[in-house]
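stage 2 :: seqdesign
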């Protein structure tokens, strides 16, 4: 039985060592395809794999056609917008994610970006503090909850909006509930995004919401670049010199930002939110265990396809 770890952005070596322990203890062979540059490398590596662990790697129908023996693919992470779920189902491949395992790392990155921006990129100029500022958490899932916890530690005034989470659960976390996104954006100087990318959320954060934000507005996006309507973002940037955008990965309109809005944005070149040893271990080992459990016991916990 071959388990392939296919990661265009590699896990930390310490995580790979623990993934190997779990898979080899179960009697399986671990194969690594790390930092690959070309899809053809993935197509070859997956051709005889029974199980596969990926990160944001695209598991397209081309990959699934090449994966003749594949029975399970686990996205070591939360968002599974990179998996072609209908094709997984058509090929009888179980698709899973590992929710919550890398959430703290993502939440910490949101604050790392906020702090760096608030202190003017450590330029020596007078900056600002987070204490006493309003922060709105848009979607109160695993990452949103960590963001709330850290924000309270910084003495921020914390609000959240999530139509899928019970209001009492949000209140129990010591966070004020907003009835809708409009209220959240109107109240909060900082808004941190934590929704998945899907048909409903893609391009859902646009000009109408952004224009409601108070002075010195900062959008922090450690979710997916696709949830932002970039035309709306560019429009608000043109109108409001006080507006900032901090994003874990570059938007498609990055060149325009570089030309026109220097100092008002931070974009990571590669998605960095989950790129810590701890998150790699948590998500990678959880993925390996889920594969072993699936083969040994048939457990389909965390299955995301029908
Ligand atoms: C996730 O959805 O879990 C994060 O975006 C992490 O993605 P990565 O594993 O590609 O860093």
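stage 2 :: out
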């Amino acid at each position: 039985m071959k388990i392939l770890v296919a990661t265009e952005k590699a896990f930390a070596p310490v995580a790979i060592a623990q993934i190997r322990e779990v898979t080899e203890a179960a009697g399986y062979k671990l194969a690594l395809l790390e930092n690959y540059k070309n899809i053809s490398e993935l197509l070859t590596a997956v051709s005889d794999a029974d199980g596969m662990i990926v990160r944001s790697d695209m598991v397209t129908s081309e990959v699934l056609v090449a994966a003749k023996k594949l029975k399970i693919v686990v996205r070591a992470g939360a968002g599974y917008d990179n998996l072609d779920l209908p094709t997984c189902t058509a090929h009888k491949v179980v698709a899973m994610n590992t929710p919550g395992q890398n959430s703290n790392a993502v939440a910490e990155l949101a604050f790392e970006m906020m702090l760096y921006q608030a202190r003017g990129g450590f330029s020596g100029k007078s900056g600002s503090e987070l204490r006493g500022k309003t922060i709105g958490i848009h979607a109160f899932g695993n990452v949103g909850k960590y963001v709330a916890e850290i924000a309270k530690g910084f003495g921020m005034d914390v609000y959240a909006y999530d139509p899928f989470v019970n209001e009492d659960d949000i209140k129990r976390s010591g966070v004020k509930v907003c009835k809708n996104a409009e209220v959240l954006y109107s109240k909060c100087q900082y808004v941190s995004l934590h929704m998945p990318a899907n048909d409903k959320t893609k391009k859902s954060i646009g000009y109408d919401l952004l224009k409601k934000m108070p002075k010195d507005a900062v959008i922090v996006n450690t979710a997916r670049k696709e949830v932002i309507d970039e035309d709306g973002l560019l429009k608000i940037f043109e109108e409001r010199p006080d507006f900032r955008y901090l994003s874990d990965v570059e938007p498609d309109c990055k060149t325009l930002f570089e030309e026109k809005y220097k100092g008002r944005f931070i974009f990571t070149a590669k998605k960095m939110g989950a790129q810590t040893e701890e998150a790699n271990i948590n998500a990678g080992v959880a993925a390996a265990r889920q594969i072993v459990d699936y083969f040994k016991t048939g457990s389909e916990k965390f299955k995301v396809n029908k």
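stage 3 :: structure notes
- The first helix runs from residue 13 to 25.
- Residues 44 and 102 are 29 Å apart (CA to CA).
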